[in-house]
Structure prediction request, 322 residues.
Amino acid sequence: MVKQYNYYINQAELAICDSNYQKASDCYHSAFAVKRANVRDAHFAFILNHLYHYNLERACEAFHFLVQAGDKAYNEYGSYLEDTTACPELWNCMKIISDTTQSLVDENLYNALNEIRKDDQRVRMAFYESDELAYATIGHTDSLNFQKAQQIFKQYKDIDEYNSGGAVMLNAAFIHFARWRLTTPDIYYKKMVKNGDLSVSNYMQNYDYCYHCIYKADENTTYGTSPSYTYVINNTFFIRYPENIKQVNRNRKKINAAETWEDYVKKVMYVYHNDSPFRFYPKQTMFYGDQDVQEQMEKDERARYDSGEVKGMYYELNTREQ
Prediction:
């Protein structure tokens, strides 16, 4: 069931990259017939069927999932209710869904997870009189947050994107847990992903970032989504090949991902080359200094690729030529 769902979602996203919006709409609809939508997928399906390939029934189908996950999961969906004139038929349908659909969010669970998020950011935005004090305070807070996370996952046996109000993936907090060698995301999230209770795309990004950028920086990427593999310097988009792409794709299959590393690259390229709301993956931009420094680093990085020191390819963002 989960494999079939992920297959349809991957096909939908690839179809969007090809501007084949009819196929994308059909694939999302097929996926949602297999199992309940992951919130990320419902969000993209709603945008698609609302703005790119208008389909009232399918837009409302996706919107229903978003309402069930609560307004905290994807805050921007609430803004779609503000314009009552652009598409009154859809607006009326959305209003009915909003008024009659019960949220599945466990407020106590959401608040407990969100408290960790807030503490994680608050301690890093505070002013400290010395670096030593900052280091000690941040370390203490991260340790307490890790203990809180352990308790939450022990208390709530069946956490998913819906009952957590979209707060289940503590991305930033787990990155900071990894810095202190406290844990990695697979301990808590891999089972959820394999069961289809959590977006496989979100999990792969967080795992690679935590495990390979911070926890085990010397090891090869597991899923090929580490920030050091697709990134921009100045106006050049670099794509670094993993040392063993076949192993990366085998690792992806083990968690029921239908998306291959090659599919991932196609989606990342789409995000960088299109000003689109379909942000399948985040952009990674490297900053080294002022414009002169950026241009020199861009030139140096291109030279590393040209010489074969780094295996991969690069593109000008505005021309898409190597």
